[in-house]
Design a protein that fits this description.
Elements (H helix, E strand, L loop, with lengths): L2 E6 L4 H15 L6 E7 L2 H10 L4 E6 L7 H4 L1 H7 L8 E5 L3 E3 L16 E4 L10 H7 L1 H14 L29 E5 H20 L7 H12 L3 E3 L5 E2 L12 E3 L9
Parallel strand pairs: 1-2, 1-4, 2-3, 6-8, 9-10
Antiparallel strand pairs: 4-7, 5-10, 6-7
Length: 262
């Protein structure tokens, strides 16, 4: 199985991505062809890193320095514009500040993914398979869930609730909230999804609308309206989350505190 991984790593995020490359060489689809595609303003650094890699090939796409929230909001547009670079049978998006801490790939079955897409349950809104057990262990979080349910009418998660945004998800479709940091797909289906979300994100921007949680809001719109597979939060493990007790991390979202790096 050959795999292509897209990441946006401008500014300081390139330093995070450098460690991600090392992790992917060790743990991502072991024994398979691995291509890392990076959108970065540090082109020279990326090319030097490519010479040091033992397994991964690195494709560098020069990109202007992106601040917040463009670095996340525009990722669909960036990936769509670089579709010609893809060499893998499976394509992933990984945030630059992820760490792959255990083997990922052999246990996945891309040919069985619904709609050819695999998204990941958001670790912050993971409630396990038995909500009654979750309520017993985490009563305060359960109260927060109830308040959110009442305010948003339905669904645990941070859904886009404004109808003027194309990321809007109606209450009856608010089921499983997914994260924006990690997503997989078979190549054709992955690129088709990216094209769709790039068009919708750009249309919002033309209308002067920015979705509540940027690219993640648009991804949740897609998940709510299309058949997809949803994976365990093991693939986007949030450090320090009590609700993830018993979940074994494979890909970890680094904890950087409340201050966003711009």
């Amino acid at each position: 199985m050959s795999v292509t991984v897209f990441s946006v790593a401008t500014g300081i995020y390139f330093d995070y991505w450098r460690h991600l490359v090392s992790d992917c060489e060790k743990h991502l689809y072991p024994g398979s062809s691995l291509q890392m595609v990076v959108f970065t303003d540090r082109e020279a650094d990326a090319k030097r890193l490519a010479q040091e890699c033992e397994r991964a090939s690195i494709t560098v796409v020069k990109t202007d320095t992106l601040g917040w929230p463009d670095a996340t909001l525009l990722r669909y547009r960036l990936i769509a514009s670089a579709r010609y670079t893809v060499e893998g049978e499976v394509v992933m998006h990984l945030d630059a500040d992820m760490r792959v801490v255990a083997p990922v790939g052999p246990e996945l079955t891309p040919w069985s993914w619904h709609g050819g897409i695999a998204l990941v349950r958001h670790p912050g809104f993971y409630r396990g398979n038995r909500y009654s057990a979750f309520v017993t262990r985490h009563p305060r979080l359960a109260v927060t869930d109830l308040k959110g349910w009442l305010l948003r009418e339905r669904g645990v998660g941070q859904w886009e609730t404004r109808e003027e945004s194309r990321a809007y998800v109606p209450p009856q479709r608010r089921q499983e909230y997914v994260c924006g940091g990690v997503w997989f797909g078979r190549t054709a289906e992955f690129l088709s999804m990216v094209d769709t979300l790039a068009r919708r994100t750009d249309a919002d921007l033309r209308d002067g609308v920015v979705a509540r949680w940027h690219d993640e809001s648009h991804l949740n719109w897609f998940a709510a309206h299309h058949e997809v597979s949803v994976l365990s939060p093991s693939y986007c493990y949030g450090q320090g989350l009590a609700s993830l007790r018993g979940v074994v991390p494979k890909i970890v979202a680094l904890e950087k505190g409340d201050v966003r790096v711009r």
